Amino acid sequence: MPTNIVTQLAAKSHDTPDEKRRPDKTEVDVVSLGDYTIGRFTFHPGWRWSDCIKPVVGTDSCQNNHVGYCVSGALSVETTDGSRIGITAGNSYTIPPGHDAWVDGDQPFVGIEFLSAAEFAKAPGT
């Protein structure tokens, strides 16, 4: 397994991110710390990847790898092979490429993403 190496002491707030992305019902706040990109993803009630992000990225399903931690809310994820999981507050998660996802309930889903933040919800070529 590869070893991650941190070479600098740093801290940044997602309240003043380096980059903001705002597709429909979506807030992606991205900070870069050295070689690492970390995102705070907020998906509002009614959010669904296939409705809100697919029009931006143009793929049939989400092609990102996700590693994250759910701060609050609930998200359902279904892979193209039909596997399904629920993610709720306090869960750490991994999600492979080839999936759809949607917010469950009337509370926003807030997750901290450690792997996909650099690319999630970006139009190709941007």
Structural category:
mainly beta
Low-pLDDT stretches: none
Q: What is the number of helical segments per DSSP (H or I, 4+ residues)?
A: 2
Strand segment tally:
9
Strand order of the largest sheet: 1-2-3-9-4-7
Q: Predict the CATH topology.
A: Jelly Rolls
Top CATH class: Mainly Beta
Could you tell me the radius of gyration in angstroms?
14 Å
Explain this structure.
The mean pLDDT is 96. The chain has one domain (19-113): Sandwich (Jelly Rolls), CATH 2.60.120. The strands form 2 sheets. Strands 1-2-3-9-4-7 form a 6-stranded antiparallel β-sheet, with no helix packed on it. Strands 6-5-8 form a 3-stranded antiparallel β-sheet, with no helix packed on it. The longest helix is centred in the middle third of the chain and has 4 residues, at 49-52. The relative contact order is 0.24. By secondary structure, the chain is mainly beta. Helix content is 6%, strand content 40%.
